[in-house]
């Protein structure tokens, strides 16, 4: 798949050269709550994952793309998961690793590009996102991009000794 090009970022397929970035991102405890990770990943496991990252979304029901800045440096990942072509829907998730790259339009542009790809190329009818209640940045981001809050999953995430609600956002193709 060719890169999806935006004004300031691009989304591209994972490459073998992304191993160090993926290792750093997947083992960053700061994002484990949003990724559902509970144990570190080895380079070996991540290399095997990268070896299979080229598989078709229709086979593996997910698509993970690197978010790259204008210089081509990977700054985050954006995923489509639970891809359901029969019902024409998928989940969407995003992580921008370094705080210095957040609140600078990277997330907005990435989600816009992936949304356009999902609706126009994959012919999806809807995308959804799950956001933990205290992730104000993501809540603001998805609302700003036209995702509607459609539900709350009570006590959904157990983190640091307590439960948190998870908010379900949905965007329908107009």
Automatic annotation (TrEMBL):
It comes from the Bacteria. Signal peptide: none annotated. PROSITE patterns: GNAT (PS51186). CDD domains: NAT_SF. The keyword Translocase does not apply. Pfam families: Acetyltransf_3 (PF13302). GO terms for molecular function: transferase activity. InterPro entries: Acyl_CoA_acyltransferase, GNAT_dom. Residues 9-174 form the N-acetyltransferase domain. Its EC number is 2.-.-.-. It is an enzyme of class 2 (transferase). Keywords: Transferase. PANTHER family: GNAT-FAMILY ACETYLTRANSFERASE, SPERMIDINE N(1)-ACETYLTRANSFERASE. This is GNAT family protein.
């Amino acid at each position: 798949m060719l890169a999806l090009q935006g004004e300031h970022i691009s989304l591209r397929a994972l490459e073998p050269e992304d191993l160090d970035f993926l290792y750093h991102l997947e083992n960053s405890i700061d994002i484990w709550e949003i990724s559902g990770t509970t144990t570190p990943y080895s380079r070996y496991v991540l290399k095997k994952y990268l070896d299979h990252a080229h598989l078709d979304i229709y086979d593996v029901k997910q698509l993970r793309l690197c978010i790259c800045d204008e210089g081509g440096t990977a700054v985050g990942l954006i995923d489509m998961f639970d891809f359901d072509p029969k019902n024409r829907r998928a989940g969407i998730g995003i992580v921008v690793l370094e705080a210095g790259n957040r609140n600078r339009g990277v997330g907005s542009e990435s989600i816009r590009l992936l949304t356009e790809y999902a609706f126009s190329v994959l012919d999806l009818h809807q995308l959804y996102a799950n956001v933990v209640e205290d992730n104000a940045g993501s809540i603001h981001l998805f609302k700003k991009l036209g995702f509607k809050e459609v539900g709350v999953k009570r006590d959904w995430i157990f983190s640091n000794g307590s439960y948190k609600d998870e908010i379900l956002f949905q965007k329908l193709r107009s």
